[in-house]
Amino acid sequence: MSQQSPNSQIEDLIRDGIAKARAGDKATARELLQKAVQLDEYNERAWFWLASVVETDEERRTCLHNVVLINPNNTRAQEMLDRLDETSSGEPPPKAPINPRKALIGAIIALVIIFVACIIFLVSSGGGGDKEAKATPSITPTASATASATPNPTATATATLEPTWTPTPTVSPTVDLAASMPTPPPDMQGRIVMRSGNEALDRENQPIFFVNLADLSRVRASANNVRGRNPSVSPDSTRYVFIQYLSGTQDIALTVSNLTGSETRTVSQYWGGASIIVFGQDMPAWSPVAPQIAFIGKESGNRSTDLYIVTIGDTPPVEGGNPELLRRLTSDDSAESWPSWSPDGSRIIYVADVIDDTLARPNGIDLYIINVSDGTISPVTSDVNALVETQPDWSPDGARVVFSGTVAGANTSDIYIVPLDGLAPPSVLVDLGPHDTQPRWSPDGRYIVFNSDYLGGIGTDVYIYDLETQTTYAVTNDPRSQDEANDWAR
Question: What is the pTM of this model?
Fold first, then answer.
């Protein structure tokens, strides 16, 4: 694989960050867009989208201010910045009457200060010069950022803003917060499969572990030096599929492995990856009844992701692969993501960011169900962007779906539940922390495992919600580690 150019890498980060933001995965979007602005601090589009996924108004103000600094004609960013200022300050206080004498004295003092400053500048710079100071977007919100970052309306030098913001939050959890959450009871059955680690340079991909819920002991499933994300377990719990990070090429690959990581295989070998190239493979989901894996990706020339199904067996793939083992379920301009199988394996619920020029479907982000046999599609939600749904999972009884949702205009996500009979709208099931994500059912349908930044650290932890007792249990409690569960082994 050829090395990406810096500009290509930045555009990929921005594109993927926007896709994650639209899908409601603000944590991942924030990481991608922060990487983009680190590589190119003058990228207007990256700063603008980063403003939509940062966690505080102060960070949002900084991002928007950088947009305006880079492009003073960006009226939308300026309007959003003005609204933030109005929200934080409220109505401006009435101006006090101006005392002419004080005003005159103040003006004289100001002129003296300016005169002295000019002399100091000329002396320190060796009599001046023709170098023009370049305006640098600020990265850390400070109380004086707004005033110091205002572009100079003249053609002369503009103020230099020192980049001092570190993208990773520095909030530390309190001991009481971690201690207040009980661990799962000893009689809880099953194993959680998750990524877990604190690889600072790539927080999205970490080693894969299985956690025994009876005693919270863990076994590493991925081989040494292997990292990835979004693991999903086979029906017989002997294998799992995940997105593996390939450190040599800095690429990713849909990979199937046994539970010890001693035998791994790139899934594209089954269909013949050399003849049918699917880019951006991600979000795999193993069928509960068959050796089939649903995932997303896109082929050359497509501008958005589609749903795919690949059939694999217990034996190695034939040499060169078999193209008939790969099936493309969707083929449109909408961006599909996060497939989840029905209990009988006949249907898949997924997220679609709909772009439908025929207006056959409302444009926006909603949940849909596709029939695997004939490809017919039906909506589950139709609120467009009033509630941004992502990461759905189908209940074992087939009657309900849980997902992570973000209300329009909000900067937090909660766990929602919606019945599939259409008799009730989605409702909040869990609101634990600022970002509650990736809910997955237990095999018996009593529990929901999910991820949250409840402890307020730089990572996420894994929690379990008991639908019967409405109790929440902590599976992990390390705020420095990126712990994210994606399946509950049957």
Answer: 0.66
